[in-house]
Design brief:
By secondary structure, this protein is of the alpha/beta class. It has eight helices and seven strands; from the N terminus they run H-H-E-H-E-H-E-H-E-H-E-H-E-H-E. Strands 3-2-1-4-5-7-6 form a seven-stranded mixed β-sheet, sandwiched between helices. Helix 6 links the parallel strand 4 and strand 5. Helix 1 packs across helix 4. The two termini are about 30 Å apart.
Length: about 230
């Protein structure tokens, strides 16, 4: 993905109280940083922050951490939130690479991980870079609480099929999935849309979603049409 460099991005982010500038020092202490004992949910690849900002406003009983690798993208989220008169006290941002998650969050410290419209990395040689690859699932497993889970949404059917096939070999349970989120009466309840979701669904693109959890030997639980799950080749 080629992004336009914004020279002022690093300076704005460095000055923002919304951004945690020493995230590795907070490992194991995120509840303390928020000043409460509420559960911690994170979004990996938060983009401009619309999804997480709305969730934080809706659920003050949960601590949210938005993770974005690119300063030019995080800048938009920071500036947008800075303009709000009332800023949620349960939302913080980090500028970091997702491959460092275990260095920033301790074992069992995160109860839910959101992955929304992640970069599909279409070339096969880049498969390990996909945020739903087996390598990343192992990273998530190290920081998730015993009852933790991952929620993934995308309009990219190829990426979704790949993600479905990764869960079993990684020992994860596929709890629920749909190939048409907005047409799914159950999974669409309480759905908060991202900027990309609004854009793609307005064009008529179906949105796929799956909810997975580690440590279940690849079982499928209440996952709808199991015959539709892509098989290993």
């Amino acid at each position: 993905m080629r992004l336009r460099n914004i020279p002022r991005a690093e300076a704005v982010i460095a000055d923002s109280a919304l951004v945690v500038h020493n995230p590795k020092e907070q490992r194991g202490s995120w509840q303390k940083l928020f000043g409460n004992t509420n559960p911690v949910h994170i979004e990996v690849g938060m983009g401009k922050g619309q999804f997480l900002t709305q969730l934080a406003a809706m659920h003050p009983e949960i601590n949210y951490v938005g993770i974005e690798r690119y300063t030019s993208v995080l800048l938009r989220a920071v500036e947008k939130l800075e303009k709000q008169e009332e800023k949620p006290e349960n939302l913080l941002f980090i500028c970091m690479d997702a491959r460092e998650l275990q260095e920033v969050f301790g074992e069992g410290e995160v109860e839910k991980i959101y992955l929304n419209f992640s970069d599909p990395w279409p070339k096969e040689r880049h498969a390990d870079r996909r945020l739903t690859s087996g390598k990343f699932l192992k990273r998530y497993e190290q920081i998730l609480a015993p009852d933790g889970m991952v929620e993934f949404k995308t309009d990219n059917r190829g990426l979704f099929d790949f993600s479905m096939k990764e869960t079993g070999p990684a020992g994860w349970m596929l709890k629920q999935f749909t190939y048409d989120l907005h047409g799914d009466e159950q999974l669409s309840q309480g759905n908060v849309m991202t900027e990309y979701e609004e854009k793609f669904s307005a064009k008529g693109n179906p949105i796929c979603k799956m909810i997975i959890a580690p440590g279940a030997d690849g079982r499928v639980e209440n996952a709808g049409d199991t015959a539709a799950i892509p098989k290993e080749q």
